[in-house]
Protein backbone atom coordinates (compact mmCIF):
# COMPACT_ATOMS: atom_id res chain seq x y z
CA UNK A 1 0.00 0.00 0.00
CA UNK A 2 2.87 2.39 0.78
CA UNK A 3 4.58 1.58 -2.53
CA UNK A 4 1.34 2.12 -4.43
CA UNK A 5 0.91 5.52 -2.80
CA UNK A 6 4.50 6.53 -3.58
CA UNK A 7 4.45 5.32 -7.20
CA UNK A 8 6.35 2.07 -6.74
CA UNK A 9 6.03 -1.19 -8.71
CA UNK A 10 2.50 -1.76 -7.27
CA UNK A 11 1.28 1.66 -8.41
CA UNK A 12 -2.02 1.48 -10.27
CA UNK A 13 -2.63 -2.16 -9.31
CA UNK A 14 -5.58 -3.20 -7.14
CA UNK A 15 -5.43 -5.95 -4.58
CA UNK A 16 -7.04 -9.11 -6.07
CA UNK A 17 -10.48 -9.89 -4.67
CA UNK A 18 -11.00 -13.23 -2.94
CA UNK A 19 -13.05 -15.73 -4.91
CA UNK A 20 -16.58 -16.29 -3.57
CA UNK A 21 -18.56 -19.20 -4.94
CA UNK A 22 -21.99 -17.64 -4.34
CA UNK A 23 -21.07 -14.12 -5.54
CA UNK A 24 -18.98 -14.92 -8.61
CA UNK A 25 -20.83 -17.98 -9.90
CA UNK A 26 -24.37 -17.55 -8.56
CA UNK A 27 -26.30 -19.53 -6.00
CA UNK A 28 -27.99 -21.92 -8.49
CA UNK A 29 -24.79 -22.64 -10.39
CA UNK A 30 -22.92 -22.96 -7.10
CA UNK A 31 -25.32 -25.65 -5.91
CA UNK A 32 -25.01 -27.57 -9.17
CA UNK A 33 -21.21 -27.32 -9.03
CA UNK A 34 -21.29 -28.48 -5.44
CA UNK A 35 -23.38 -31.53 -6.34
CA UNK A 36 -21.04 -32.37 -9.19
CA UNK A 37 -17.98 -31.93 -7.01
CA UNK A 38 -19.52 -34.13 -4.34
CA UNK A 39 -20.28 -36.81 -6.93
CA UNK A 40 -16.72 -36.63 -8.31
CA UNK A 41 -15.15 -36.92 -4.87
CA UNK A 42 -13.90 -33.45 -4.10
CA UNK A 43 -10.99 -34.46 -1.87
CA UNK A 44 -8.23 -32.09 -2.85
CA UNK A 45 -9.81 -28.98 -1.29
CA UNK A 46 -9.39 -27.90 2.31
CA UNK A 47 -11.82 -28.99 5.01
CA UNK A 48 -13.43 -25.57 5.17
CA UNK A 49 -14.13 -25.55 1.43
CA UNK A 50 -15.47 -29.11 1.58
CA UNK A 51 -17.81 -28.15 4.43
CA UNK A 52 -19.02 -25.19 2.39
CA UNK A 53 -19.65 -27.38 -0.66
CA UNK A 54 -21.62 -29.89 1.44
CA UNK A 55 -23.82 -27.16 2.91
CA UNK A 56 -24.55 -25.76 -0.55
CA UNK A 57 -25.25 -29.21 -2.02
CA UNK A 58 -27.91 -29.78 0.67
CA UNK A 59 -29.65 -26.57 -0.37
CA UNK A 60 -28.80 -24.62 2.77
CA UNK A 61 -26.55 -21.72 3.57
CA UNK A 62 -22.93 -22.28 4.41
CA UNK A 63 -22.13 -21.84 8.08
CA UNK A 64 -19.93 -18.91 8.91
CA UNK A 65 -16.64 -19.68 10.66
CA UNK A 66 -16.63 -19.43 14.43
CA UNK A 67 -15.32 -16.36 16.14
CA UNK A 68 -12.15 -16.49 18.18
CA UNK A 69 -13.97 -15.82 21.49
CA UNK A 70 -14.42 -18.75 23.86
CA UNK A 71 -16.04 -19.12 27.27
CA UNK A 72 -13.76 -18.99 30.27
CA UNK A 73 -16.05 -20.34 32.99
CA UNK A 74 -17.65 -18.47 35.86
CA UNK A 75 -16.80 -14.92 36.76
CA UNK A 76 -14.27 -14.68 39.55
CA UNK A 77 -15.38 -11.28 40.83
CA UNK A 78 -18.48 -9.76 42.41
CA UNK A 79 -19.62 -6.14 42.20
CA UNK A 80 -20.50 -4.56 45.51
CA UNK A 81 -23.95 -3.50 44.36
CA UNK A 82 -24.76 -7.12 43.47
CA UNK A 83 -23.65 -8.51 46.85
CA UNK A 84 -26.32 -9.83 49.25
CA UNK A 85 -27.96 -7.11 51.32
CA UNK A 86 -27.51 -8.97 54.59
CA UNK A 87 -23.73 -8.52 54.23
CA UNK A 88 -24.35 -4.84 55.10
CA UNK A 89 -21.62 -3.46 52.81
CA UNK A 90 -21.54 0.30 52.33
CA UNK A 91 -22.02 1.44 48.75
CA UNK A 92 -19.06 3.82 48.74
CA UNK A 93 -16.56 1.33 50.18
CA UNK A 94 -15.28 0.27 46.77
CA UNK A 95 -16.41 -1.19 43.47
CA UNK A 96 -16.08 -4.87 44.35
CA UNK A 97 -17.05 -7.29 47.12
CA UNK A 98 -15.44 -10.62 48.07
CA UNK A 99 -16.86 -13.41 45.93
CA UNK A 100 -17.47 -16.53 48.05
CA UNK A 101 -15.53 -19.65 47.13
CA UNK A 102 -17.22 -22.92 46.29
CA UNK A 103 -18.13 -24.59 49.55
CA UNK A 104 -20.84 -25.99 51.79
CA UNK A 105 -23.21 -23.01 51.49
CA UNK A 106 -24.72 -21.05 48.63
CA UNK A 107 -23.23 -17.69 47.71
CA UNK A 108 -26.41 -15.83 48.70
CA UNK A 109 -26.72 -17.73 52.00
CA UNK A 110 -23.20 -17.41 53.41
CA UNK A 111 -20.78 -14.95 54.97
CA UNK A 112 -17.14 -15.05 53.74
CA UNK A 113 -14.42 -15.20 56.37
CA UNK A 114 -13.00 -11.85 55.28
CA UNK A 115 -16.28 -10.15 56.24
CA UNK A 116 -16.38 -11.98 59.57
CA UNK A 117 -12.88 -10.86 60.58
CA UNK A 118 -12.90 -7.37 59.07
CA UNK A 119 -16.51 -6.16 59.17
CA UNK A 120 -18.08 -8.12 62.05
CA UNK A 121 -15.36 -8.86 64.62
CA UNK A 122 -13.11 -5.89 63.69
CA UNK A 123 -9.98 -8.02 64.14
CA UNK A 124 -8.57 -6.64 60.88
CA UNK A 125 -8.78 -3.29 59.17
CA UNK A 126 -7.68 -4.22 55.65
CA UNK A 127 -7.71 -7.09 53.19
CA UNK A 128 -4.01 -7.82 53.78
CA UNK A 129 -4.46 -8.05 57.54
CA UNK A 130 -7.18 -10.69 57.05
CA UNK A 131 -4.82 -12.75 54.90
CA UNK A 132 -2.09 -12.45 57.55
CA UNK A 133 -4.46 -13.72 60.27
CA UNK A 134 -5.70 -16.64 58.19
CA UNK A 135 -2.24 -17.70 57.03
CA UNK A 136 -1.16 -18.03 60.66
CA UNK A 137 -3.97 -20.62 60.99
CA UNK A 138 -5.82 -18.77 63.76
CA UNK A 139 -9.38 -19.32 62.47
CA UNK A 140 -11.33 -22.59 62.53
CA UNK A 141 -14.75 -23.34 61.05
CA UNK A 142 -16.55 -26.44 62.34
CA UNK A 143 -13.34 -27.67 63.97
CA UNK A 144 -11.14 -27.35 60.85
CA UNK A 145 -8.55 -24.66 60.11
CA UNK A 146 -9.56 -22.51 57.15
CA UNK A 147 -7.06 -20.30 55.32
CA UNK A 148 -9.27 -19.29 52.38
CA UNK A 149 -10.22 -15.63 52.83
CA UNK A 150 -13.50 -16.12 50.94
CA UNK A 151 -14.49 -19.44 52.52
CA UNK A 152 -18.31 -19.45 52.82
CA UNK A 153 -19.41 -19.83 56.44
CA UNK A 154 -23.16 -20.28 56.80
CA UNK A 155 -26.06 -20.90 59.13
CA UNK A 156 -25.23 -22.98 62.26
CA UNK A 157 -21.48 -23.00 61.48
CA UNK A 158 -19.15 -22.70 64.48
CA UNK A 159 -16.33 -20.16 64.02
CA UNK A 160 -13.54 -20.62 66.59
CA UNK A 161 -10.46 -18.50 67.32
CA UNK A 162 -8.32 -20.52 69.78
CA UNK A 163 -5.83 -17.69 70.37
CA UNK A 164 -8.52 -15.49 71.91
CA UNK A 165 -10.49 -18.45 73.31
CA UNK A 166 -13.64 -17.32 71.49
CA UNK A 167 -16.36 -19.35 69.78
CA UNK A 168 -19.20 -18.02 67.66
CA UNK A 169 -22.20 -19.62 66.00
CA UNK A 170 -23.65 -18.05 62.86
CA UNK A 171 -27.38 -17.46 63.35
CA UNK A 172 -29.97 -15.09 61.91
CA UNK A 173 -31.55 -12.12 63.62
CA UNK A 174 -35.20 -11.23 63.03
CA UNK A 175 -34.22 -8.87 60.19
CA UNK A 176 -32.60 -11.67 58.17
CA UNK A 177 -28.99 -10.67 58.88
CA UNK A 178 -26.23 -12.95 60.10
CA UNK A 179 -25.45 -12.65 63.80
CA UNK A 180 -22.18 -13.94 65.32
CA UNK A 181 -23.59 -15.36 68.54
CA UNK A 182 -20.96 -16.01 71.22
CA UNK A 183 -21.15 -19.54 72.68
CA UNK A 184 -19.33 -21.58 75.31
CA UNK A 185 -16.76 -24.31 74.69
CA UNK A 186 -19.27 -27.09 75.41
CA UNK A 187 -21.66 -25.81 72.76
CA UNK A 188 -18.90 -25.31 70.18
CA UNK A 189 -18.26 -29.07 69.99
CA UNK A 190 -21.45 -29.81 68.04
CA UNK A 191 -23.71 -28.33 65.40
CA UNK A 192 -27.21 -29.00 64.11
CA UNK A 193 -27.63 -30.11 60.49
CA UNK A 194 -30.86 -30.32 58.52
CA UNK A 195 -31.30 -33.53 56.52
CA UNK A 196 -31.95 -32.90 52.83
CA UNK A 197 -32.48 -36.50 51.71
CA UNK A 198 -31.98 -40.12 52.74
CA UNK A 199 -30.95 -42.53 49.98
CA UNK A 200 -29.32 -45.89 49.30
CA UNK A 201 -25.99 -46.21 47.55
CA UNK A 202 -24.10 -49.14 46.09
CA UNK A 203 -24.66 -52.51 47.76
CA UNK A 204 -27.68 -51.04 49.55
CA UNK A 205 -25.66 -48.82 51.90
CA UNK A 206 -27.94 -46.10 53.35
CA UNK A 207 -26.68 -42.54 53.60
CA UNK A 208 -28.06 -39.07 54.19
CA UNK A 209 -27.23 -35.64 52.81
CA UNK A 210 -27.26 -32.53 54.98
CA UNK A 211 -27.85 -28.88 54.16
CA UNK A 212 -24.11 -28.11 54.37
CA UNK A 213 -23.00 -30.76 51.88
CA UNK A 214 -22.13 -33.57 54.28
CA UNK A 215 -22.72 -37.23 53.44
CA UNK A 216 -23.09 -39.58 56.40
CA UNK A 217 -23.38 -43.33 55.93
CA UNK A 218 -25.37 -45.78 58.05
CA UNK A 219 -27.65 -43.26 59.79
CA UNK A 220 -30.42 -44.22 62.19
CA UNK A 221 -33.31 -45.75 60.20
CA UNK A 222 -35.74 -43.37 61.94
CA UNK A 223 -34.05 -40.28 60.44
CA UNK A 224 -35.95 -38.92 57.45
CA UNK A 225 -35.80 -35.85 55.22
CA UNK A 226 -36.37 -32.47 56.95
CA UNK A 227 -35.28 -33.90 60.32
CA UNK A 228 -32.36 -32.36 62.20
CA UNK A 229 -29.29 -34.25 63.42
CA UNK A 230 -26.90 -33.28 66.20
CA UNK A 231 -23.39 -33.77 64.80
CA UNK A 232 -20.24 -34.14 66.89
CA UNK A 233 -17.61 -31.98 65.16
CA UNK A 234 -14.68 -34.00 66.51
CA UNK A 235 -15.83 -37.45 65.40
CA UNK A 236 -18.28 -36.38 62.63
CA UNK A 237 -20.83 -38.83 64.01
CA UNK A 238 -24.52 -38.38 64.75
CA UNK A 239 -25.14 -37.98 68.49
CA UNK A 240 -28.90 -37.41 68.43
CA UNK A 241 -31.65 -36.25 66.08
CA UNK A 242 -34.89 -34.24 66.13
CA UNK A 243 -37.96 -35.28 64.18
CA UNK A 244 -39.78 -32.72 62.07
CA UNK A 245 -43.05 -32.93 64.00
CA UNK A 246 -45.78 -30.60 65.21
CA UNK A 247 -44.89 -29.13 68.61
CA UNK A 248 -41.12 -28.82 68.08
CA UNK A 249 -39.34 -25.47 68.09
CA UNK A 250 -37.97 -24.22 64.76
CA UNK A 251 -36.07 -21.27 63.31
CA UNK A 252 -36.96 -19.80 59.91
CA UNK A 253 -33.97 -19.60 57.55
CA UNK A 254 -35.56 -18.04 54.46
CA UNK A 255 -38.26 -15.68 53.29
CA UNK A 256 -39.67 -12.59 55.00
CA UNK A 257 -39.74 -14.28 58.42
CA UNK A 258 -36.03 -15.18 58.46
CA UNK A 259 -34.67 -15.40 62.00
CA UNK A 260 -38.00 -15.88 63.77
CA UNK A 261 -38.28 -18.71 66.30
CA UNK A 262 -41.47 -20.52 67.19
CA UNK A 263 -43.29 -23.83 67.59
CA UNK A 264 -44.85 -25.74 64.70
CA UNK A 265 -48.64 -25.61 64.98
CA UNK A 266 -49.80 -27.06 61.70
CA UNK A 267 -48.53 -28.43 58.40
CA UNK A 268 -50.52 -28.00 55.19
CA UNK A 269 -49.69 -30.39 52.35
CA UNK A 270 -50.19 -29.13 48.80
CA UNK A 271 -49.66 -31.64 46.00
CA UNK A 272 -47.63 -30.19 43.17
CA UNK A 273 -46.67 -27.15 45.23
CA UNK A 274 -44.89 -26.15 48.43
CA UNK A 275 -46.05 -27.42 51.81
CA UNK A 276 -46.96 -24.63 54.24
CA UNK A 277 -45.87 -24.60 57.89
CA UNK A 278 -47.75 -22.52 60.49
CA UNK A 279 -45.54 -21.35 63.37
CA UNK A 280 -46.39 -19.58 66.64
CA UNK A 281 -43.71 -17.57 68.47
CA UNK A 282 -43.34 -17.01 72.22
CA UNK A 283 -45.57 -13.91 72.19
CA UNK A 284 -48.48 -15.75 70.55
CA UNK A 285 -48.11 -14.28 67.05
CA UNK A 286 -48.64 -16.78 64.24
CA UNK A 287 -47.11 -16.73 60.77
CA UNK A 288 -46.77 -19.14 57.85
CA UNK A 289 -43.80 -20.04 55.65
CA UNK A 290 -42.66 -22.69 53.24
CA UNK A 291 -41.48 -26.04 54.50
CA UNK A 292 -38.04 -25.55 52.96
CA UNK A 293 -37.50 -22.41 55.06
CA UNK A 294 -37.94 -24.18 58.41
CA UNK A 295 -35.04 -25.56 60.48
CA UNK A 296 -35.86 -27.64 63.59
CA UNK A 297 -33.62 -26.59 66.50
CA UNK A 298 -35.08 -28.47 69.48
CA UNK A 299 -37.60 -30.90 70.92
CA UNK A 300 -40.70 -29.33 72.38
CA UNK A 301 -40.25 -25.67 73.24
CA UNK A 302 -36.61 -25.95 74.38
CA UNK A 303 -33.95 -25.31 71.70
CA UNK A 304 -30.71 -27.31 71.70
CA UNK A 305 -28.60 -24.25 70.88
CA UNK A 306 -28.49 -20.88 72.62
CA UNK A 307 -30.27 -18.07 70.77
CA UNK A 308 -29.02 -14.51 70.17
CA UNK A 309 -30.48 -11.40 71.75
CA UNK A 310 -34.22 -11.17 71.22
CA UNK A 311 -34.73 -14.97 71.20
CA UNK A 312 -36.13 -14.87 67.68
CA UNK A 313 -39.13 -12.67 68.55
CA UNK A 314 -39.86 -10.11 65.84
CA UNK A 315 -41.07 -6.72 67.07
CA UNK A 316 -43.22 -4.29 65.15
CA UNK A 317 -42.02 -0.77 64.37
CA UNK A 318 -44.05 0.68 67.25
CA UNK A 319 -42.73 -1.94 69.70
CA UNK A 320 -39.15 -1.20 68.64
CA UNK A 321 -39.70 2.54 69.13
CA UNK A 322 -41.15 2.00 72.61
CA UNK A 323 -38.24 -0.24 73.51
CA UNK A 324 -35.73 2.40 72.43
CA UNK A 325 -37.54 5.11 74.40
CA UNK A 326 -37.60 2.93 77.50
CA UNK A 327 -33.88 2.22 77.17
CA UNK A 328 -33.11 5.92 76.67
CA UNK A 329 -35.19 6.83 79.74
CA UNK A 330 -33.42 4.21 81.85
CA UNK A 331 -29.98 5.54 80.88
CA UNK A 332 -31.07 9.15 81.55
CA UNK A 333 -32.29 8.35 85.07
CA UNK A 334 -29.16 6.35 85.83
TrEMBL record:
GO biological process: translation
Keyword Cytoplasm carried by entry: no
Domain RNA-binding S4: 111-175
GO cellular component: cytosolic small ribosomal subunit
The UniProt record lists the keyword Amino-acid biosynthesis: no
Keywords from the named record: Ribonucleoprotein, Ribosomal protein, RNA-binding, rRNA-binding
Domain of life: Eukaryota
CDD domains: KOW_RPS4, S4
Region listing for Disordered, in residue ranges: 1-24
Domain KOW: 243-270
Any one Gene Ontology molecular-function term assigned to this protein's record: structural constituent of ribosome
Pfam family, one: 40S_S4_C
Family: Belongs to the eukaryotic ribosomal protein eS4 family.
PANTHER family: 30S/40S RIBOSOMAL PROTEIN S4 (PTHR11581), SMALL RIBOSOMAL SUBUNIT PROTEIN ES4 (PTHR11581:SF0)
The protein's name: Uncharacterized protein
Amino acid sequence: MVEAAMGGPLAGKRRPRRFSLERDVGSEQARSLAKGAAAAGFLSASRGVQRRFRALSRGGEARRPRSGKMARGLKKHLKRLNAPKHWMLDKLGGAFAPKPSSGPHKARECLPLILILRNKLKYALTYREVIAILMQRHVMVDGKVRTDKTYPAGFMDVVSIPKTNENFRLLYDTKGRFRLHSIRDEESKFKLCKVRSVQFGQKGIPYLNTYDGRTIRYPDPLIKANDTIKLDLETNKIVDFIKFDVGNVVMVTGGRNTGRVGVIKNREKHKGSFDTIHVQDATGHEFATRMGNVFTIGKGTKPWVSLPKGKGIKLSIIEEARKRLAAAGATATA
